[in-house]
Amino acid sequence: MIKIVINGFLGQMGQVIGNQIKNSVDMELVGGIDKNADSYKGETKVYKNLDDFHGDCDVIIDFSHPTSLDNLLKYAKTNKVALVIGTTGYEEKEMQKLNEASKEIPIFYSANMSLGINLLLSLVSKAASVLGEDFDIEIIEKHHNKKIDAPSGTAYMIANKINEVFDNGKVYTFGRNTKTNKRSPKEIGIHAVRGGTIVGEHDVLFAGLDETIEIKHNASSKNVFAKGALVAAQFIVKKDKGLFNMDDIING
């Protein structure tokens, strides 16, 4: 039985993951962490701070906020607990912290836990390698109106995967409302739409001479991300240390 704590338990993703764990035969939800713990009236034990949890735990699943990272890593290293992190909005300094901590503990990090999105990453990489410099590349992502970070972490994942094909020679252009010059062949355009209750849509457009190719993924509910996070939890508890992502599951 894998014992799991959810950091960001009262958020939308935390609740979906919690419900899936309750329906699992080999996982147990042993606690939740959330700054709004005082407002919770359910049966799960929820704490304001991770340091307040003193039970047994195999893995912490984190869907919270980038500002939680330092405390999360400190607790995990002290207690030798595995981490599954799906929080988005990390910058380079946070990624460096993940790399450093992974020398001591096992960490699974992905800005998008969906199997479908990770298949899309493989497809856009193949498309970029075949189409080359003759096609302009634009990424359009759409999310609900409560999402804080923009562009999405997944949009960056897609752009970075494509850029690897070009030896990281592309530059990212975020919207064009202030642009007065024509599009450069070196650009990857990234555009964010926020509205309603859109769970997550990512569309990658390859536009060439007289033809276009689109590769698109649409998430209809957060269940796809929760399922991926729990698959990641099953994977990471078997590791001693290191930094892993969905590629390690798909290609492992």
Describe the structure in your own words.
The chain has seven helices and twelve strands. It has 252 residues and is an alpha/beta fold. The protein has a seven-stranded parallel β-sheet with strand order 3-2-1-4-5-6-12, with helices on both faces. Strands 8-9-7-10-11 form a five-stranded mixed β-sheet, covered by helices on one side. Helix 1 packs across helix 6 and helix 2 packs parallel to helix 3 (92-101). It is elongated.
Average pLDDT level = 94
Q: What's the gyration radius in Å?
A: 19 Å
Topology pattern, helix = H, strand = E:
EHEEEHEHEHEHEEEEHEH
- Rough shape? elongated
Give the arrangement of secondary structure elements.
Blueprint: E1 2-7, H1 12-22, E2 27-33, E3 46-47, E4 59-62, H2 69-79, E5 82-85, H3 92-101, E6 106-109, H4 115-131, E7 136-143, H5 153-165, E8 171-174, E9 187-194, E10 200-208, E11 211-219, H6 223-236, E12 242-244, H7 246-250
Parallel strand pairs: 1-2, 1-4, 2-3, 4-5, 5-6, 6-12, 7-9, 8-9
Antiparallel strand pairs: 7-10, 10-11
Helix pairs in contact: 1-6, 2-3, 4-5
Summarize the structure.
By secondary structure, this protein is an alpha/beta fold. Helix content is 32%, strand content 27%.
What descriptive keywords fit this protein?
252 residues, alpha/beta, seven-stranded parallel β-sheet, five-stranded mixed β-sheet, 7 helices, 12 strands, 32% helix, elongated
